[in-house]
Amino acid sequence: MRLVYVSPGPLDAKAVDGLSQFAQTWPGEVIAVAPPVAGAALPAAPGVEVVTAAPTTADGLRALGPDVLLALHRPEFGWLTEVAPTVFTAEFSRRIRVEQQMVAARGTLDRARIALGQRRRERAYRDMARRAAGLQCNGPGAWDAYARLNARPLRIRDHRIRREDLTLAGRRATWRGDRPLRVAFSGRLTAVKGPRTVVEVATMLPDIEFVVLGGGELRDPLERAAPDNVRFAGFLPFEEWKAFVRDGVDLALLPYPQGDPSGTYYEFAGCGVPVVGLANSTWRRIAAEDGLGWAERDGAGLAARIRSLRPDDLDAVRAHALGGFEAFEDVAARRVSHLVAVAHGDR
User: Fold this and answer.
1) Among 329, 306, 307, 309, which residue's Cα sits nearest to residue 160?
2) Inter-axis angle of helices 13-25 and 328-344, to 10 degrees?
3) Rounded alpha-carbon distances, angstroms, from residue 329 to 85, 131, 151, 335
4) How far apart are CA 288 and CA 279, in angstroms?
C-alpha cells in the first residue's frame, strides 16, 4: 500500500519526524510530495520517499498510485478527494482562525473584514470535512468543529515526545524552592505567540528567572524592553530543546493570545514541566481536561499564578501529566491504523 502525504511547503523537521515514524508501522511505502528548497539537499527522512519533481496535480498524484492521501485541512487541498481516499489533518476551527488574524487587526473595519472572510471560508472547510474519507483532529477546537461532519474522525494530540523522553522526565530533578524559579517561553517571537506578555510578566516578578527560546521579528525590541531577569537563548533544535528544558526549566509560560493547538504545550509537559498560559480557546480546554497546568486571563493573572506556585503544586501537575501521557510513537501508530482503515475502506 502507498501512503502519499501532500505537503503545503518544503518539509520541515517536524514533518520529517512524523513521516519517518509513520513509516515504522505503515504496511507499505510512504511518499511525501513537497516543493524543493532552492540550493538545499532533500531532507533525510528514513523510510520515506521524498518526491519534488512530480507536480501537485490530479494526474501527477494519480501516477504515484496512492491508496490514501494525507494533507492539511486547508481549502487549497479540497480537490484531493477526487484523486484518492483522502484524510485531512484539522487543527483550527473558525474561531481559532479568527483569533489568529485578529492579533494583527487594525481597527474596527479590519476586524469586521476578518470575521466576514472567515465566515465565508468556513463553508469550504465544512465541505472538505464531509467529503474526506477520514479526518484527524489535532486539538479540541478542530474536533468540536468538524468531527461530527465526518464518517471516520480521529482525535489526536500532536507532539514529538517519545517514550524515552517520558522516562527521562520522570527522573529529572525538580524545584524545591531553594533557588529562584526558572520559567521558559518557547515559540516564534511574533505577535501571534504573545512574547510581549513574557516581558510584562517578568517585569512584575524580578526574583524569578526567565528564558526565551525561539527567534523572530520581535527579538530585538523584546531584548531592549526586557528586564535583567530575562535571558534570550534563541532557537534550539528539538533534541537540544528537550535536554535544555529537562535540565533547566521548572515552569513554562506560554501566553499565546490565540488558540493554535501548539504541540509546545504537550512537549513541555512531556519533559516534566507544567505550563501556565493565557486562557485562549485551546489552552483553557487542555489545562482543564488534561491537567497540564493553569489558564489565566491576562498578564497580571499569569504573574499572580506564578508567584503563588509552590513545589507541591508543580509536582502534582507533573505527576498527573506524565502518568497519562500518550507518547509520540503511540500517537503515530494510532494515526497509521486510522489511515490503513481508510485505505481498506473499513467501516
Assistant:
1) 329
2) 60
3) 24, 29, 25, 10
4) 10
Annotate 93-118 with b (16+ C-beta within 10 A) or e (fewer): bbbbbbbbbbeeeeeeeeeeebeeeb
Residues 17 and 39: their CA atoms lie apart, in Å, by 22
pLDDT at 212: 98
Enumerate residues 6+ apart whose C-beta is below 8 A from 150. 129, 130, 132, 134, 135
The Cα angle at residue 152 between residues 150 and 153, in degrees rounded to 5: 75
CB 156 within 8 A of CB 132: no
Residue 90 forms beta bridges with which residues?
Answer: 137
Question: In the Cβ-directed half-sphere of 40, how many Cα atoms lie within 13 Å?
Answer: 11
The pLDDT, as a whole number, for residue 347 is 47
Q: What is the pTM of this model?
A: 0.94
Q: What's the rounded Cα separation, in Å, for the pair 328 and 160?
A: 5
What's 250-315 look like in SS3?
Answer: CEEEECCCCCCCCHHHHHHHCCCCCEEEECCCCHHHHHHHCCCEEEECCHHHHHHHHHHCCHHHHH
Q: What one-letter code names the amino acid at 245?
A: V
Strands, DSSP E only, in 56-104? Answer: 68-72, 86-90
Cell 484518492 sits on residue:
84
Produce one character per residue of 302-317: b if its CB has 16 or more CB atoms within 10 Å, e if not.
bbebbeebeeeebeeb
Residue linked to cell 485505505: 343
Q: What is the pLDDT of residues 26-68, one digit of tens each?
A: 999 999 999 887 766 667 788 999 998 766 789 999 999 999 9
Report which of 20, 50, 17 is spatially closest to residue 241, judged by C-alpha positions: 17
pLDDT confidence tier of residue 114, bands split at 50, 70 and 90: confident
Is the pLDDT confidence value at 346 over 70?
no
Amino acid at 286: I
Strand partners, 182: 209
The C-alpha angle with vertex 8 and arms to 1 and 271, in degrees rounded to 5, equals 85
